[in-house]
Amino acid sequence: MGELPKTIELLRYSKEDAWGYHKNNLAEIKLDKAIADNSPMIFLSRVVHLFEIEADGSIFRVAIDGKNVEIIRVNGKI
After folding, report:
1. In sequence order, what are the beta bridge partners of 59?
2. d(CA 67, CA 63)
3. Where are any strands of DSSP class E within 1-78?
4. Biggest CA pair distance of the chain
5. Which residues pair with 15 in a beta bridge?
6. CA-to-CA distance for 12 and 48, rounded, in angstroms?
7. CA-to-CA distance for 78 and 76, rounded, in angstroms?
8. N or C: more exposed end of the chain, with fewer CB within 10 A?
9. How far, in Å, are 3, 5, 17, 35, 41 from residue 53 at the CA level?
10. Is there a contact between 32 and 14 (Cβ–Cβ < 8 Å)?
11. Which of 72, 55, 54 has its CA nearest to residue 63?
């Protein structure tokens, strides 16, 4: 396992209805240009949480759907 990143920054956070997410590819999902507000607790199980983070100059997208996690490296500009 590699080292922990020296820098990490949350660039974007969004959420998508769980049904809609499964129809899309994580690399192709259009994320908001900012960090979205939190969802009310009652809806947390029905959304997929989407993060775009920068770690040591590399950009990653992370999708969290319950206990399932998907992560990809994003190439090019945001």
Report:
1. 54, 74
2. 10
3. 8-17, 47-55, 58-65, 68-74
4. 37
5. 49
6. 14
7. 7
8. N
9. 17, 12, 21, 11, 23
10. yes
11. 72
Residue 22 CB neighbour total at 10 angstroms: 10
Q: Which residue has tokens 């490296």? A: 73
Q: Per-residue pLDDT tens for 19-36?
A: 666 666 888 877 777 787
pTM over the 0.70 mark? yes
Three-state DSSP state, 2: coil
Name the residue type at position 43.
F
Instruction: Determine what percent of the chain falls in helix, strand and coil, rounding each to the nearest 5.
Output: 15, 45, 40
pLDDT tens track for 50-76: 899 999 999 999 998 888 899 999 875
